[in-house]
Design a protein that fits this description.
Helix content: 40-55%
GO molecular function, one term: pyridoxal phosphate binding
CATH topology: TIM Barrel
Number of domains: 1
Family: Belongs to the pyridoxal phosphate-binding protein YggS/PROSC family.
Largest sheet: 8 strands, parallel
InterPro entries: Ala_racemase_N, PLP-binding_barrel, PyrdxlP_homeostasis
Number of strands: 8
Modified residues (N6-(pyridoxal phosphate)lysine): 36
Structural class: alpha/beta
Number of helices: 9
CATH architecture: Alpha-Beta Barrel
CATH superfamily: Alanine racemase
Keywords: Pyridoxal phosphate
Strand content: 15-25%
């Protein structure tokens, strides 16, 4: 079985190749290692191999890992899972990015509970591209109003959009879906919002996402192996 450093190298190589194929510089596509269900030792192995951005879905798992890895400098913590109202304080206090904001109430709570000494909390709005009942996310129709309101919250920095599209096998179909998120970002920019982030793409659609402008790609299994 390949070790975490070898898997991480392989994923990074895929990202670089995808960026170059799309005529983009690889430095503008960042990897978030999705570390849910993985032990702190696995994250430290990835850190020692050069990874710095880690994505966690479950607060109750993330906080002990953050404590265990507190001795490591410059880790960037991304919260990428559904957000319950009673979890916003800990998320606001312990994360650098939140990818999964889809309601104004959650954004307001994160804003109000963000410690001043930590600076702005980076936010992506999660969009439900395919109107799937099983997934969170604001609709494309409701997105502009939510984005405008979140952009006005003083302790948050609205950076862009995130989506988890319905699975599609063909890259052309993957790109068509992800292009809708890219277009939504461009439309918001045209309305005056200074957005720079598209959080999209996972192991199965990484190449399609990079081709459509992803700036943060979230990969778990191809780095850490099957979930523990």
């Amino acid at each position: 079985m390949p070790k975490i450093d070898e898997k991480l190298h392989n994923v990074t190589a895929r990202l670089t190749a995808a960026a170059e194929a799309a005529g983009r510089h690889p430095q503008f596509v960042k990897l978030v290692a999705v570390s849910k269900t993985q032990p702190a030792e696995a994250l430290e192995a990835a850190y020692q191999a050069g990874q710095r951005r880690f994505g966690e879905n479950y607060l109750q798992e993330a906080l002990p890992k953050q404590e265990a890895l507190a001795h490591l400098p410059d880790i960037e913590w991304h919260f990428i899972g559904p957000i319950q109202s009673n979890k916003t304080r800990d998320i606001a206090e312990h994360f650098d990015w939140v990818h999964s904001v889809d309601r104004l109430k959650i954004a307001q709570r994160l804003n109000d509970q963000r410690p001043a000494q930590l600076g702005h909390l980076n936010i992506c709005l999660q969009v439900n591209l395919d109107a799937e009942d099983s997934k969170a996310g604001v609709s494309l129709q409701a997105l502009p109003e939510l984005a405008l309101k979140v952009s006005q919250l003083p302790n948050l920095s609205l950076r862009g959009l995130m989506a988890i599209p319905a699975p599609r096998e063909e890259q052309a179909a993957q790109r068509a879906s992800l292009a809708r998120l890219r277009q939504a970002l461009e439309d918001l920019r045209a309305q005056g919002l200074a957005l720079d982030t598209l959080s999209m793409g996972m192991s199965a659609d990484l190449e399609a996402a990079v081709a459509e402008g992803a700036t943060l790609v979230r990969v778990g299994t191809d780095i850490f192996g099957p979930r523990s």
